[in-house]
Amino acid sequence: MIKRLREVFCFILFMSVIFTGCSNSSNSLKDENIALSKEVSTIKEENVNLEKTVKDLNDKLSKQEPKNNIAKEPSIKDKSNLYPIYTADTDTYKKQIDAYIYIPKELELKQKLDTLAKALSEAYFDNLPIQVVNIKDVDNKKIAVINLDESSENQGISDFSKLKGSTWATKYFQGSTGGTITSTQLIETMLQRDYSGQWIDGVKFLYKNKDCNFQHVPDLCNINYRK
Prior knowledge:
By secondary structure, this protein is α+β, with helices and mostly antiparallel strands. It is built from four helices and eight strands; from the N terminus they run αβββαββααβββ.
């Protein structure tokens, strides 16, 4: 009888060891799965943060890159296709070169003017619209007609006091110095007086498709000729 009880006891002990081992193994697998899930979540979060960092860096890089191939110093190998962008000295009002822009030689004259207008708008006039309307014939002279418009948020506003942000009327056409610099940048850059290739003979500016009548930019009202 005692021998039989010992056998039963040993059997029970053996089975308990087996079940305990299985239970521990199962718990261990669950713990490993939980740990792996957390690790995967962490890696995904790090990837998201890394992608955001890369995007931010690319955005900053694109903002730092010169627009329209504008450069302060000319490139020797591309010199024949470099066009100066002019400004005026704030003390003497004398015309001076402020930068250069590369324009492919195969472009048509109108396209070259469009490129210059876009460069001026982006680099000097807060992206205000500068549109080369056409090149018309006036007394056998090629005259470029260029319209200066306000930003989209200021369309339809005739009261200058209600204009918002950077504007032609309340910023770039104002003041003796400011008006002179604006006029020089626009007129001299578009005329390219020192360029020896085919070019326009003169330029006339409009403001919102009408004559540009502002006190401090009187030269913009007239046709300005290269010679």
